[in-house]
Fold these 4 entries.
Entry 1:
Amino acid sequence: MRRYELMLLLRPDLEDDKLQSAVEKVTRAIVNAGGSLSKVSPWGKRRLAYDIGQFREASYFLIHFDIEPLQVRGIERGLLITEEILRHLVTVLEEREGASREEEVPAARPPIEAEAEARGVRDIAFDEGAAELGEEDEEEIAVDLPTDADRGVDEDEDEDEDEESRVEERAGV
């Protein structure tokens, strides 16, 4: 089971009894799906950042609950078709203690790292326990990249082409 947080934005024109019945409907759906409620907090009416339909404010409710991950989709489906609910957001808070994560698979090592390890090459970037690089270490791992001159590119030609393309852009060509 996982712990979830559900933020509900309900229509502000609902009377208190209809507001409570809408929240009870949601909490019943959670319990019927095998979940357990931790906390239900009414936040009251608050102004929205933007209008939702014709409404400028909404009644906010925050619900914390524990449920199996597969059941969340069914609950959200019910929230989407409830007319009293303007918006909702379900977020995962934490994994409950003692729960197993069968779907969790250990991360694979990057191919470059695995290849380097197979050849017996040690690189500071792959060493998880490596200390911060000092200035004296930078020389050891410096890589000489080919320059434009090494590749046979004339810098003056590149500048001329760039200038020509800017002139054509300004002229609309």
Note: The longest strand covers residues 36-52.
Entry 2:
Amino acid sequence: MDQTTGIALGSLVGGLWLFLLWLGIVIWVYRDIRDRTEDVFLRVLSVLLAVLFFPAFNLPGLLLYLLMRPRESLDEAYSRSLEQEALLREVGEGVMCYECRQPVEREFLFCPYCRTRLREPCPRCRRPLSLFWVLCPYCGAPKGAEALHYAREPSSLAEPSAQTEG
């Protein structure tokens, strides 16, 4: 083997190695950006940054990509949101809408997200009542048809023994 054949073989192996390095960086950038965003424009831009800087061994494109890529992956963002939701439930702010499962406050009569009726006001004290309660736990007023009669005579529940004797 003469010297020119060795140089040609060495440059071929070196060129193949640089090409595989470039291809590896492009594939890594594609896989990494796929895990970090669903934005198609950002995905294409990131891969193009890695592809276009071939003569400089991808270092400028790779550095630009590392500067502009999203900080966390989609899995990390989802895990963080699950942790935050679990913490909110532990704190006690975990009242949720029956229909859409969005967080709502205890005093809400309607869900502000899906307009589902969550509670109804007491006919007497106007405090929010659960749809499953039969009477108001704050003032004792019954719900439904009896509520109209009770609203006219507020003393009817206060002294039930006086009504039966008289």
Note: Confidence is low (pLDDT under 50) at residues 155-166.
Entry 3:
Amino acid sequence: MAASSKDSASLAGEQRDRHLFENLPICILVADLTVTPAVIVEVNRRAALLYGYSAAELVGKPADQLVPEESRASVRKIIQRVERGGTVTAETINRRRDGTTFPARVIATRCSHSGHMIATVEDITAEKQRRLEAALPLLPRVHPLTVAEMAVLRLVTLGVDSKDIARALNLSVFTVSNRLRVIFEKLSVSNRTQAALYALRQGWSTLDEPPR
């Protein structure tokens, strides 16, 4: 009888934990660190919503597939630190199923007595935009940009480098460099970061805007 009561209590506790895991309003992923690359073994509903996949589609997927290729090295570093027993807080760029990217804050730690890592992922697009907007004082009004210049500026705001801008817009790197020079002159700024901040302040672009 006592054993049966313990079993019932244990089952009830597991069900509560499962309900909490599934319904927490934060994105949670669990990855298996015993394989390389680390593979997702469990996600909650919020994770599926954030990335645009079903839970079944995420399970079995390599964890580094949820970030663009240029961010995968940073994910591997996070995993290495977790494997050494640390709890890691880091900001990375993540990628949704539809290919759009977003800045995220990741908090990851190793599960006790297992080879699994549990991570929470928070979309910090709005927070990062507020930080960027606070970094510079209001800039003066500028001459209007052409459609071609705006296309370049939007990609700059998303953090795309000149080579990838050239590829996306079917231009040469030289043409992109020239357009950036003109944009800087019109905006009265001296670098890409200031130009991106100006575009954000003016509402010309957002950090989660898909490339046009």
Note: The chain has a mean pLDDT of 86.
Entry 4:
Amino acid sequence: MARSKRLFSDVRVLGLLLGCGGLLGGLLGCGPKLPSPHAQMSFQAESGRPRAADVATQVATNFDFYLLNLSWSPEFCATHAGGVECTEHRGFIVHGLWPQRMDGSYPEHCDSRPGPTDAHAWADIMPDAGLLRHEWQTHGTCTPYAADTYFGMVRTAYRSVTIPAEFASMSQEQMLAPAAIVDAFAKANPGFPAGSIAISCGNNRLTAVEVCLAQDLRPEACSGVRSCRANVVKITPPQ
């Protein structure tokens, strides 16, 4: 299935729902110290939120790498103005951290483990609690981690990507070639290897930027990930 189709499928799901600590360091060559999938631990959510017991499971790691999807929120909000994220006029937010296989396939809905202790603890990266629960059930359960550990990894992955300044300050619609968007992200993230960034689009509009990450969250070249093939895409500015 084409990546853009899955993105819009997830966006439709979101529309219906609406109506690193110690993990940092990948870009410096030291790799995030990810929690062992077989160890018991406690995870401290940020902003003074309470500590929750977090025991990882022994689900088989039936995937090769992660795909971090950073959704361009203004494009979603152009047709879903009542969305939770739309009141904050954000730019890129996390849509998901998806287990992927080299052949382009991906696991989904792997088991029925419980979701995060407090969905709102992750509002800085995923402001809609309904989307967050959907992402856990669809993708997070296919990792060997408990929910709070998984979303801690999502936060670490998100913070490892520097958003180019031109996207943070955009005030009017722009038209750019997908290759130019990739180039802007590559320049803002010089430690990312070639081929690790992909663009997702729909109807010739930017919908997301995607980054391929190894299981230790270091950026790596994508395999089996389809990037936007449009000549140019329109970019809706934050409203």
Note: The two ends are 32 Å apart (CA to CA).
